[in-house]
Amino acid sequence: LEKAIATNPENSDARVLNAEILLARGDYAQAYEQLQEMVESPVTLNGLNWRLQAGLGEAALGLGRIENALVALKEALLSQPENPRLYRLLAETYQAGKLEPDAINTAREALKLSPDGLEMLEWYANFMAQLGQLQEAIQALRTATQLAPEGAAYWIGLAEMSLRQDDRVAAQTSLQTALS
């Protein structure tokens, strides 16, 4: 990939992919720098703008630049309004910025886009629990247990949330199901 970029530095696809790899590695500063450079360059992005903005938002969030992250993620959502991953990132950004009502509403939008996705349900449950929305977390885990009754992790998560609400009977039932 680096060779492809060195050979053709204007290869937008390779440059965005390289920045996404940096994000996956947690190298937010270098990813942010590369993506910002691409935003400022006159090179045509061939439909990559939303990925560029999403990457900028994720990198900015990783660097604690909440306002920059919000701007970039909202820009990405303009062209990808059905992308649940973007809503997840935006919800996490609102949470990091201590904007809880926006975080909760955005997380709900993410769930609407993927209501049967097990990964989404697990993320949603954990996210809502962090924000003190235990009933919504429990409902997401109940849905996950209905979709994947063999998924012990969902039953255990449901037991944990039930205990947090002092519902020992529901917690015990969930643990028994997880162990059976």
Q: Which term fits the overall shape?
A: elongated
Structural class: mainly alpha
* Beta content: under 5%
Task: List the uncertain runs.
Answer: none
The helix/strand series, from N terminus to C terminus, equals: HHHHHHHHHHH
Helix-residue proportion: over 70%
Mean pLDDT: 91
Number of alpha- plus pi-helical segments: 11
The number of strands is: 0
Describe this protein with a few key phrases.
11 helices, mainly alpha, 180 residues
Describe this structure in words.
Helix 9 packs antiparallel against helix 10. With about 180 residues, this protein is mainly α. Helix content is about 80%, strand content about 0%. The termini are far apart. The protein has helices at about 1-5, 10-25, 30-40, 50-60, 65-80, 85-95, 100-115, 120-130, 135-145, 150-165, 170-180. The protein is elongated and about 60 Å long. The relative contact order is 0.07. The mean pLDDT is about 90.
In brief:
With 180 residues, the chain is an all-alpha fold.
Secondary-structure map:
Blueprint: H1 2-7, H2 12-25, H3 28-40, H4 49-62, H5 66-79, H6 84-96, H7 100-113, H8 118-130, H9 134-147, H10 152-164, H11 168-179
Helix pairs in contact: 2-3, 2-4, 3-4, 4-5, 4-6, 5-6, 6-7, 7-8, 8-9, 9-10, 10-11
